[in-house]
Amino acid sequence: MPAELSKRLVELFRWVDPGPGSSHLVSDTSGWWRDPATLAALGPALVAPFRAVRPTVVVSPAVTGFLLGPLAATALGVGFVAAHKPGDGRLPAGPLTWAQSPPDFRGRRVDLAVRDRHLGPGDRVLVVDDWVDTAAQVRAVYQICTTRGAEPVGTAAVVDGCPPTVTKELRIAALLTPADLPA
Ligand SMILES: O=P(O)(O)OC[C@H]1O[C@H](OP(=O)(O)OP(=O)(O)O)[C@H](O)[C@@H]1O
Predict the structure, then answer these.
(1) Were 28 and a residue from 14, 46, 114, 128 both cysteine, which residue would form a disulfide, CB within 3.0 to 4.6 Å?
(2) Which Gene Ontology terms cover its molecular function (predicted)?
(3) How many Å lie between the centroid of ligand 1 and the Cα of residue 131?
(4) Residue 20 falls inside a structural domain
């Protein structure tokens, strides 16, 4: 990754106190999207480690993934498929393949759904997201890919906070670790 992008990602990131009643700070990545040079650089930087494995499609979970996934797909010259979280009350129309994640970073088991007509045998899937913490949601997306007969080739994330064994097992490549970000 270009050193300038790494520096800008760190500068533009914030930890935010959500206010009374909250026991922890939450990440604010909105500065990454607001900065034109960073927005333009993110897609190519995310997909760089995966060009050699020739993904045919990018799949990303809602909702921040819907922003980053198309940037990565555009950089690769492939299409984008949304992994919906119907728990938000919006169920996509048509046949779907579902998976439920193990407990994620908030302890939630997240239901994810992908439209069957957009994923199938022969697809080599790059999963793209802003932040991977436990990789619970990544595992659910990989399960959907496998169910559809597609092959998950890896995951590109801006931040990877997984233990090294998980990073290796799931073939995650990230631009930063949480340790790179300001305390
Ligand atoms: O590694 P995990 O423990 O699975 O957690 C990582 C996921 O959690 C966040 O999404 P979130 O569900 O908060 O949705 P958001 O994109 O709407 O913030 C993040 O964008 C990843 O998708």
Answers:
(1) 14
(2) glycosyltransferase activity
(3) 6
(4) no
